[in-house]
């Protein structure tokens, strides 16, 4: 156990929000939007049969989250609770693409009891694309650690007979203004990835069609209503393997082990590397004395063989060693990347 004072506890786990703390042990689930913010509460109540833990660690906390945070955040919560010996509760907060929940965490006391599970959408692009954001991506939180990342993937309308990214680029150049692509929403990582691809490929024209979540964009691409869609392998891998929606490019410098046959944009001469990176953060002004053990705990979680194996199924790469200063450096780089795309594409949200 990582030396965070506390007692071993249970957790709200499951697909989104499962409360396993009831006297009868029954789990209850409720569905929330994909862009909700997910909090982990680090409670002080021990689980059945658990011995007393070390005293002094904050009795509760919150972790806010968006990836398939629906899968990743509860999975992380389960392991995190075991590592720190605390009750871990995942709380989901929707509104403004997760920004409302993030704003609450940003305003929380810097006592190590409140954490946020961030993604580029909720932590960076969301506030940067708004005139009056609820928090600044660099000053609104104290980074704890980088948890991991998964690359963006481009899948194409199966009716077009396109097998490679160069073929898609050629089609868009030959037929400017006639094609469209879908994403899970304005200002999200898939949307910004497509805009970067258009810029880096020489100024391609393709109309963005935003959806409330990836499912609609994926379905319309399969049906032939869109030319392509960008998301992660989590929703796209099985469709690619079945031939229903072929993935033709991984927007990264290395091929993915889950689909090694899919070439990268880098291989095809287009400098586009976009990933959905997740990191753990605390409210601003949280002292280093609290950030360091939290980082050690998250590193222990991401190093767990079972955790890594589960994440690998979705082409998610765990970052095992990440200190607060490493997380800060990574955050600065992410702000520079996504901010440049937002400015170049002229994206602005209300």
UniProtKB/TrEMBL annotation:
Source taxonomy: Bacteria, Pseudomonadati, Pseudomonadota, Alphaproteobacteria, Acetobacterales
Highest taxon listed in the record's lineage: Bacteria
Name assigned to this protein: Tripartite tricarboxylate transporter substrate binding protein
Pfam families: TctC
UniProt record similarity statement: Belongs to the UPF0065 (bug) family.
Organism: Teichococcus wenyumeiae
InterPro entries the record matches: BUG, Bug_dom1
Matching PANTHER family: BLR1237 PROTEIN, TRICARBOXYLATE-BINDING PROTEIN
């Amino acid at each position: 156990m990582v030396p965070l004072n506390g007692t071993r506890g249970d957790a709200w786990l499951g697909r989104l929000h499962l409360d396993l703390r009831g006297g009868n042990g029954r789990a209850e689930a409720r569905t929330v939007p994909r862009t909700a913010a997910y909090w982990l509460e680090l409670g002080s109540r021990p689980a059945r049969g658990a011995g007393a833990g070390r005293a002094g660690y904050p009795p509760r906390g919150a972790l806010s989250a968006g990836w398939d945070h629906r899968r990743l955040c509860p999975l992380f919560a389960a392991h995190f609770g075991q590592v720190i010996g605390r009750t871990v509760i995942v709380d989901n907060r929707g509104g403004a693409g997760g920004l409302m929940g993030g704003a609450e965490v940003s305003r929380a006391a810097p006592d190590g009891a409140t954490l946020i599970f961030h993604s580029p959408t909720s932590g960076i692009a969301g506030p940067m694309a708004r005139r009056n954001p609820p928090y600044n991506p660099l000053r609104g939180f104290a980074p704890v650690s980088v948890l991991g990342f998964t690359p963006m993937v481009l899948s194409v309308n199966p009716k077009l007979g396109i097998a490679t990214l160069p073929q898609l680029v050629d089609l868009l150049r030959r037929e400017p203004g006639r094609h469209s692509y879908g994403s899970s929403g304005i200002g999200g990582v898939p949307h910004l990835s497509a805009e970067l691809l258009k810029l880096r490929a020489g100024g391609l024209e393709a109309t963005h069609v935003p959806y409330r979540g990836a499912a609609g964009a994926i379905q319309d691409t399969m049906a032939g209503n869109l030319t392509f869609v960008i998301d992660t392998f989590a929703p796209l891998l099985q469709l690619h393997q079945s031939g229903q929606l072929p993935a033709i490019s991984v927007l990264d410098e290395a091929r993915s082990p889950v689909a090694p046959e899919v070439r990268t944009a880098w291989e095809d001469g287009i400098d586009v590397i976009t990933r959905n990176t997740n990191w753990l953060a605390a409210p601003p002004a949280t002292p280093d004395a609290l950030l360091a053990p939290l980082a050690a705990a998250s590193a222990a979680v991401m190093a767990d063989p079972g955790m890594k194996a589960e994440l690998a199924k979705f082409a998610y790469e765990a970052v095992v060693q990440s200190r607060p200063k490493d997380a800060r450096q990574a955050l600065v780089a992410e702000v520079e990347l996504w901010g440049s795309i937002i400015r170049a594409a002229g994206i602005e949200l209300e």
